[in-house]
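User: I've been going back and forth on whether these two constructs are worth ordering. Before I decide, could you fold them both?

Assistant: Sure. I'll take them in the order you sent them. The first construct and its structure tokens:
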Amino acid sequence: MNNQSVELPLAKKPRLMFIDMARSIAILLMLEGHFVDDSLMLEYRDLNNPIYATWLYIRGFTSPIFLTVTGLVFIYLLLGKREEPYFSNLRVKKGFKRSLELLFWGFALQYYAFHVLQCIGVGIFSILILFGIYKLIRVIPLWIYYFVAGTLLFGFNLYLDQLPEFGVWPENAPYVIQNMFHGPGHRAIFPIVPWMGYTMYGAMLGSLLHDFKEQVKTWRAPLITITIGFIFYLFSKQILEGLDQLIGSPFVLNLGILDWLYMRFGMVLIALSSLMIIEKLIGDIKPNLFIKVGQNTLTIYIIHMMVLYGSLTGFGLNRLFHHRLNPWQVTLGALLFILLFVVFVKYLDQIKLKLDFILGPIRRFFNRIYGIK
């Protein structure tokens, strides 16, 4: 999902191609995941089937990768202009604009839910606010701000998990606010708590990558990252339960129930470090269609919602295939669905050029509002 991962262009120097690869993998996994989940017959959703269980397991890491990479990319680019005055920084202006765009499209596509676009939009807004505080108070390193924010977002899930089945939080807030955290009917598909924690941890990684970008070019960075990733992936529960014992009674928090969040973050670190290693082994990776897919995640997300679910249009493929396909049909359908968007991205620049008479004035109008030249 991402992104944001939300189509802010990458800086040309230095260019970390493993980030582009991660965004492409995340959006392709999202496309096949949504198609399979919506189309596969219910009788084939058997957790005892190793193929389905493996697919479901992998799918659980798609959103954490998408959300983490979004925070990583955004702050990495923002820090390229770290010393510029806050409100004169072009990246800050573009960030606030992007945040509003994501919220708009999120509610336009699914007005009843708080989904990944809204979560990313609020995440980018929060990254900018914390960056502004950091600019005022230069005592604490920037990555610590995002580490604390991510940890608090994960940790607050301890409280929300204890709410009754139909409980809401905050209780007396408007529906739209409740839906951002723990809304009625659980309409918050990707609520701020805990999912925005991945975006904050991504911003932490982006800050560290920028500050230690020379070390990123060495083998030390991916080896350290993959080691930490495996520690989180394999030992999150033991580490969190150990912290509980260290804190001691009467402040036992049952931190062990947060292990699934940190286990997934460990998988994200493993994936990113693996891509770092692949980039080093391959060498200079030229821009290509695969990389371009990851640079257009917002456009892909919007169009796939229209094509698959009928958002805005009222008619989507799910009217034809919803829970009606067997595994072989789903496999072929998912491949064709992915191919459709790869071809779409291939010709996206030409499509945008032909639509510039509509898109151009709209883009210039909103750029003037945000003071973007």
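The second construct, handled the same way:
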Amino acid sequence: MGGMIHIVDDEEAIRDSLGFLFASRGLASRCWPSGEAFLAAQPLEDCSCIILDVRMGDLSGPEVFDRLLAQEVRAPVIFLTGHADVPIAVEALKAGAFDFLEKPFNDNQIVDLALCAIERFNATKAEDAARRDIAARLATLSPREEEVMRLMLTGELNKQMADRLNIAVRTVEVHRGRVLAKMGARNGLELAAMVGTDNK
């Protein structure tokens, strides 16, 4: 599973132990001694998961998280928290954090949670890429092809489309073929699955 886990904690012992743990499980990680250092390095293209301590010397974990949100960094954030900080972590969850772990945690807990976060992030990235690809294909359609596509998505037959658009059935067939070719769909069902019903 690709991607880098970024560990942000001002305690060197925690950074070292987590870095060693992830390496022992075949996971790449990079450590940061402060929230400021991590934020200064943004944007990080390889960032698939962020492990962020709630309490740090300068910027706190939640403050770093707020700045990441403002920078539209979408990598999932897992907070490390002491018992007294659980309410803070719960608020971070409401704001969009992936999860939190209360110290002390066991090795399997944090590895499993990081793997889940990376899997979710990779799936979201793939979905985003697919949406961008579909949007780019839609942008290649002519206004008439867009009209035909919308009617295709309602399930209308070629004859019905021809009557509605006041054009020949053969012309509808040509436009329909171009729509499918440009969108990379084999038939109307594939097209509907690709673009959904929002374009009706």
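Notes on the second construct follow. The radius of gyration is 24 Å. Strands lie at 4-8, 29-32, 47-53, 77-81, 99-102.
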